[in-house]
Amino acid sequence: xxxxxxxxxxxxxxxxxxxxxxxxxxxxxxxxxxxxxxxxxxxxxxxxxxxxxxxxxxxxxxxxxxxxxxxxxxxxxxxxxxxxxxxxxxxxxxxxxxxxxxxxxxxxxxxxxxxxxxxxxxxxxxxxxxxxxxxxxxxxxxxxxxxxxxxxxxxxxxxxxxxxxxxxxxxxxxxxxxxxxxxxxxxxxxxxxxxxxxxxxxxxxxxxxxxxxxxxxxxxxxxxxxxxxxxxxxxxxxxxxxxxxxxxxxxxxxxxxxxxxxx
Amino acid sequence: xxxxxxxxxxxxxxxxxxxxxxxxxxxxxxxxxxxxxxxxxxxxxxxxxxxxxxxxxxxxxxxxxxxxxxxxxxxxxxxxxxxxxxxxxxxxxxxxxxxxxxxxxxxxxxxxxxxxxxxxxxxxxxxxxxxxxxxxxxxxxxxxxxxxxxxxxxxxxxxxxxxxxxxxxxxxxxxxxxxxxxxxxxxxxxxxxxxxxxxxxxxxxxxxxxxxxxxxxxxxxxxxxxxxxxxxxxxxxxxxxxxxxxxxxxxxxxxxxxxxxxx
Lengths: 263, 263
Fold this sequence. Notes:
Two copies of one chain form a homodimer.
Chain A: H1 14-23, E1 32-33, H2 35-42, H3 46-58, E2 62-64, E3 70-72, H4 74-80, H5 84-104, E4 107-114, E5 117-125, E6 139-141, H6 146-153, H7 157-165, H8 179-192, E7 195-198, E8 205-213, E9 219-228, H9 234-253
Antiparallel strand pairs in A: 1-3, 2-3, 4-5, 4-9, 5-6, 7-8, 8-9
Helix pairs in contact in A: 2-3, 5-9, 6-8
């Protein structure tokens, strides 16, 4: 899982880009930062960071914790909660995720693609769920997980080429890393309307994922069940997850107008 | 419920403040905006909005929906998800909220104070829950709801003075609007470690709320049960919500270091 790379590799007007690089310096492992940590993580001079932090505090994008260190402000969460591909999608999909979680008592995950990575929008853990490495709002490689394979299978060709041209991370001895094996897995995911990641992220978990479409249109998200690999019945998990993904697709497509999801 | 007022009434460096006023132009009723709508809602010239939108698109804070209109970007949601007073608090409190929801089958709400308003961080609806007017990430008046009365009861005196100096909104004929009645309700909330909002927001709901502290320290949030007013047993709801709020307080206080909540 990488830091939120808001400004990485993009050139924008200096002030807005710098302000966002300061916000993007925070991540799950670093939810609070001092001024000098902010300067180090952004690569900006301390005087610049000092001025930016003051401006971000003034508009509520940053707050100070009681320790005096900076943290992401509640206001930024309020604005972020309006993102159609995050909470907007989650709200529509949640009842179906809850049903799936109650029936299987496994992990159920909802994810979208952002550039060359998976972003997890929701994760429910059933009562017998296997431990997983993901968190809501966190990122992961497209090439390893069930949802990642589904999203990559339906991504533009240049995204696939870019992912395969970079070093593909290996998590277990089962992780697919060869270009040929990954291209074959993507073709299978399109053919079967479903992808299986068998112990490719952790040694004891299998993920079965299906695409979510905007109605009958393009793939906009993926849904998965992550179960204990031992004893998993992949065919029945696949039927379950595909059925639920179709239900979410229908619900997304029936939301009136472009308001709720951005279609 | 008001729009997210990031820049309202605050003076900051012009570019960062303008960029945030563009983001703050989106709200639950307006999750997608055209360039001219953005200009109208921010009061900025269209040429300025055009340049700002391009910069915000470049860093992923905004996206374009398939309709071509602007919407809040997934990246902003990812960064916002790091806010300790939002998802950080929610994650720690969620198991206790789920227990309370399962036992009561009513609405369970978690909220914090931001300036002079309540912000709802989580809401779970049980199987017999009464309809409520709140949404996660939404705002409400401090003077009317159970969580609002708890948060106002433990706010600095100047916040209370400011809230009482402004016109207090009336939702039903039971809404407290006189300064004397509200001050009395705040004193009662402190005395009883619990606040009751009886049909003050909708005609058929009663809310019973208790403070959440950071360990044994300051009040940082409030927890409520919102039930059908008819037949509600306020004393037993109060015992339940206070017990759960104490459990959340203990969990918040025991999180190692200042990392998770910002204490």
